């Protein structure tokens, strides 16, 4: 029987609430579909700091490195606002991305028909929205050195972050964007700030060269990242795949998330390069939303982004395409039926908590899966 090793890192705040709903789906798939998932669980973020004095322990890093896929909840909360910078909760997530070399972050922004009214934009602008933001995740200003604050000795301090990209980093992320575009509407829009930044000039050149070299069948467009942000809220449906760097990708994906109705809706997959021998990619799946400490422990968090992240895991780590489709369909069905958590409430909908919406999605998934097994 196939075994599929999952390493679960629920993290802090609403992370464990959302992960609880995924655990039920995993149990169902093991019991009813012999999916063969094994799960191990670790600590990341503030809870890891409390237990080990680090944002993730070495033992948990090893487990993450050897798992087939990592499922990640959320990190952070006011309790850890004053911990040293090196061991702040986010450091655990950044270390996972860097050490697992997860350079390609896929952030789909899909507006479920039932949620068009929950968007901050007019429904006709977002109905049917289906864009994929590909964010470079292991380079740029997040990791560039020097990264320092120095005392200038005259009552002033100087802070430095470094935006740095090498050719190969831009080549590999743009290749992912072009490959993904071929499975969709075959269009890529690359965003940078070549009018101000040298890294933007190189980004633009390398994306253009990669396109010319291997992907000239894909339609490529370039946009300055600020204009891109504006276009995302003006006419978001013009985009198919957007490829951009680590920092711009962080911001633009939050903008895109709001178009879909709530930050609680957006899943993401962070992928490494395929292994030369096995073809397997290291991978981590996480909701785009943060830890939302204000609603932690109240049982009202929206687990959909976490569940949809597990659907991405089924698709990208295990090629369980039918199962991934069914899980996404179950989410859409439950939304159609008018079952909503507080963040996506609308006038005639039924307001439920984390457990209820998780159970509703699971029972829909059971119905959809009844006709076959893996
Ligand atoms: C995200 C988050 C992270 C980031 C934080 C938690 C470090 O905002 O995944 O978008 O900035 O990448
Ligand atoms: Mg972010």
List keywords for this structure.
374 residues, alpha/beta, 14 strands, globular, binds 3-isopropylmalic acid, binds magnesium ion
Task: Summarize it.
This protein is of the alpha/beta class and 374 residues long. 41% of the residues lie in helices and 21% in strands. The strands form three sheets. The chain has a ten-stranded mixed β-sheet, sandwiched between helices.
Description:
The structure is a single chain. This protein is an alpha/beta fold and 374 residues long. It contains twelve helices and 14 strands. The protein has helices at 15-33, 46-52, 58-66, 89-99, 123-126, 167-182, 198-214, 225-234, 246-259, 304-316, 321-336, 354-369, and strands spanning 4-11, 37-41, 69-74, 104-110, 130-136, 144-151, 157-162, 187-192, 219-224, 241-244, 269-274, 281-285, 339-340, 350-351. The strands form three sheets. A ten-stranded mixed sheet has the order 2-1-3-12-11-4-5-10-8-9, sandwiched between helices. Strand 11 (269-274) and strand 12 (281-285) form a beta hairpin. Bound molecules: 3-isopropylmalic acid (IPM) and magnesium ion.
Write the layout of secondary structure elements.
Layout: E1 4-11, H1 15-33, E2 37-41, H2 46-52, H3 58-66, E3 69-74, H4 89-99, E4 104-110, H5 123-126, E5 130-136, E6 144-151, E7 157-162, H6 167-182, E8 187-192, H7 198-214, E9 219-224, H8 225-234, E10 241-244, H9 246-259, E11 269-274, E12 281-285, H10 304-316, H11 321-336, E13 339-340, E14 350-351, H12 354-369
Parallel strand pairs: 1-2, 1-3, 3-12, 5-10, 8-9, 8-10, 13-14
Antiparallel strand pairs: 4-5, 4-11, 6-7, 11-12
Helix pairs in contact: 1-10, 1-12, 6-7, 8-9, 10-11, 11-12
The structure holds 3-isopropylmalic acid and magnesium ion (MG).
Magnesium ion is lined by residues 250, 254.
């Amino acid at each position: 029987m196939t075994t599929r090793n999952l390493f679960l890192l629920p993290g802090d705040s609403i992370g464990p609430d959302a992960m609880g709903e995924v655990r039920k789906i995993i149990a169902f798939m093991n019991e009813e579909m012999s999916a063969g998932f094994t799960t191990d669980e670790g600590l990341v973020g503030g809870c890891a700091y409390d237990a080990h004095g680090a944002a993730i322990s070495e033992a948990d890093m090893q487990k993450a490195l050897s798992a087939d896929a990592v499922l990640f909840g959320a990190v952070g909360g006011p309790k850890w606002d004053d911990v040293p910078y090196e061991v702040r909760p986010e450091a655990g997530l950044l270390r996972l991305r860097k050490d697992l070399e997860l350079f390609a972050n896929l952030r789909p922004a899909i507006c479920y028909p039932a949620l068009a009214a929950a968007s901050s934009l007019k429904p006709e602008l977002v109905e049917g929205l289906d864009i994929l933001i590909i964010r470079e995740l292991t380079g740029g200003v997040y990791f560039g050195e020097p990264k320092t604050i120095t005392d200038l000795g005259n009552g002033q301090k100087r802070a430095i972050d470094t935006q740095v990209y090498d050719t190969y980093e831009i080549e590999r992320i743009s290749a992912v964007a072009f490959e993904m575009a071929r499975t969709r509407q075959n269009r890529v829009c690359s965003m940078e700030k070549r009018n101000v930044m040298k890294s933007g000039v190189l980004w633009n050149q390398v994306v253009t060269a990669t396109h010319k070299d291997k992907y000239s069948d894909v339609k490529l467009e370039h946009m300055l990242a600020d204009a891109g942000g504006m276009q995302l809220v003006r006419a978001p449906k013009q985009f198919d795949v957007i490829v951009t760097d680590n920092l711009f990708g962080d911001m633009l994906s939050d903008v895109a998330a709001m178009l879909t109705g709530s930050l609680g809706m957006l899943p993401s997959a962070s992928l490494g390069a395929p292994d030369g021998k096995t073809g397997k990619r290291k991978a981590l799946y996480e909701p785009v939303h943060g830890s939302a400490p204000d609603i932690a422990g109240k049982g009202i968090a929206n687990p959909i982004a976490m569940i949809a992240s597990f659907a991405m895991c089924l698709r990208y780590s295990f090629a369980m395409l039918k199962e991934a489709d069914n899980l996404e369909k179950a989410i859409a069905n439950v939304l159609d039926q008018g079952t909503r958590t507080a963040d996506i409430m609308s006038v005639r909908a039924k307001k439920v908590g984390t457990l209820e919406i998780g159970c509703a999605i699971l029972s829909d998934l059971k119905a959809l899966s009844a006709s076959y097994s893996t």
